[in-house]
Amino acid sequence: MSKFTEAICYKSFGSVLNSLYLEPNCSVYHHSYKNGKDWVRIGFRATPINPSDINQIEGVYPVKPNTFPAVGGNEGVAQVLEIGQQVKDIKVGDFVIPRLSGFGTWRRETICDPACLFRVHKSIGLINAATVSVNLCSAYRMLHDYISLSQGSFYFTVRQDDVVIQNAANSGVGKAIIQICKHKKIKNINVIRKRETTEESNALMNHLKQLGSSMTVFEDDLINNVNKVQEQIMEHFKVLPILGLNAVGGENSTNIFRLLNKNGAMVTYGAMSKKPIKLPTGPFIFDNKKCFGFWMSQWYSDSQNNSKRSEMMNDICSMIEKRALSTLDYKLYSYKDYQRANPRLY
Amino acid sequence: MSKFTEAICYKSFGSVLNSLYLEPNCSVYHHSYKNGKDWVRIGFRATPINPSDINQIEGVYPVKPNTFPAVGGNEGVAQVLEIGQQVKDIKVGDFVIPRLSGFGTWRRETICDPACLFRVHKSIGLINAATVSVNLCSAYRMLHDYISLSQGSFYFTVRQDDVVIQNAANSGVGKAIIQICKHKKIKNINVIRKRETTEESNALMNHLKQLGSSMTVFEDDLINNVNKVQEQIMEHFKVLPILGLNAVGGENSTNIFRLLNKNGAMVTYGAMSKKPIKLPTGPFIFDNKKCFGFWMSQWYSDSQNNSKRSEMMNDICSMIEKRALSTLDYKLYSYKDYQRANPRLY
What we know:
Two copies of one chain form a homodimer.
Chain A: E1 4-10, H1 16-19, E2 20-27, E3 40-46, H2 51-58, E4 70-71, E5 77-83, E6 95-98, E7 109-112, E8 117-120, H3 126-145, E9 163-166, H4 172-184, E10 187-192, H5 198-211, E11 215-218, H6 219-224, H7 226-237, E12 243-246, H8 250-259, E13 265-268, E14 277-279, H9 281-286, E15 290-293, H10 296-301, H11 306-321, H12 338-341
Parallel strand pairs in A: 9-10, 9-12, 10-11, 12-13, 13-15
Antiparallel strand pairs in A: 1-2, 1-4, 3-5, 3-7, 5-6, 6-8
Subcellular location (chains A, B): Mitochondrion
Catalytic activity (chains A, B): a 2,3-saturated acyl-[ACP] + NADP(+) = a (2E)-enoyl-[ACP] + NADPH + H(+)
Main location (chains A, B): mitochondrion
């Protein structure tokens, strides 16, 4: 087979402004495809831009392309256009997403080994399918893997006293966390930065409340008066949070760690403030608190998680079908508008 | 029964200088003993002074006495002097240690519920028995519970590439860690502070080497040139440490965290620098590193650990009997010399 397609590529690491270009004649062979193996031809229908996609082009992300020029993009949904004779479990017309990071999803078509793909329910729609594997799955795993959250239905007995706290609550992952918490009946405290006007702040708080937020806290209050925030939490929930999700770092994360209950865990998945995590020793030792890092790409690359992945995807698709969970804010751009699509380029 | 004994007590929280006194007529009933229950009369033979015993008297330690005046001391070995009719598993003459913190061990005698006591092998000798439950057991658990150390015989397959790094290596716990590592064939890197003279520093390094240290690193070098330390470690061991044990905090712990291999864990059990732990976010997220706190008292108070405790004690006693492990530096004082015995009092 010899076929060419449109793709957004980069020839070397660098700023997206200088490095990215639209390649009209990109070879459709995915680097993981080898002759003799079974094959699937897929056509991408929607692929998002994540901050990590940009970091990857800049060369500062641990996932790096095998060769240059490389096709950008790690996530996206494709439809199966054609399959080799031996291919089972995948049919023409199916929705598929890449199994691992580094696939290069910003292209119209590619041919690859079916083992590189993961089938998703068509019923969840193109946009959710395109964005399910990073933000929605990150939210799901962090709520699932570090603390046995007892209130939700994560295989545990329902109790009335589990609370989660997160910062960057207005991010894609943040909003997914709120929605999953609401669906699983987990109480959630959401730390956001104050907006420019009170009206804008109130509007954001209301938006998060509608998604399922039990309480919103401004970052300034968390940093300047953690004791008062603690009082408010105790008044509201009668118990401190058992799980903290941190994508910010700095003083914000220090105080999230402080606010955790005994035996609580803080999971870090981002560092928006670019400041390190500073933690007091006492809570580690005497309150048996724990700190973990989470990286969705790492989780996917661990083959031990394969069966958990299908289970998670079924659970997430079922939430999407029930309209309990969805990718919220997006704008659609065509490939030729790739420069407008990237918020760092205009 | 009505009986009185000599004890070192305190009437309220405060400095050891003002609060501690020698009580010649302390009632022998331990607060956990209740009438009607079975009883054991024990005579303490040796009880150590730990920094946490002092913090407890100052009121800044989470273990607090139920009533005042309180008897000081959390650890020590006693001999069984007399037993109630129903008492099984404990015989007159046995060596016993308190099962939990807060027992009040700085007294000649007490009567208590046999459930408060844990029997130890007589063969390990008075001094090791008196100090086994804090320092030696802390070292054992931290090496055991956070990483599946594969080189030693901790129920895992022997491999040639596991390395542990610790600071405060010259402390009681630190030296126990070195000895256990040597016995279990775990390579160990020991961070110490430079002494006043080169001779003293060399003497300390030699002392640790004799105990089983594979490599010694000065704190200054760790803080000022972590890259060079990393090169030395790679040259020496071909691999970075998988477990870091931290009793210091501050920059020292930041760099121990940095030096850990992928999937590594840092366990914090002390904060000698009184500085918080500052951790870069990248290693958390991309290297899947983890941070835990460890507190021996907490571990003992969790009844799930009861069976592990006997197993640990058998293993430790066997190491002591083989002369692979021991409490190293000590001075003996009589009760009447309690002021001289306390390093903060003279």
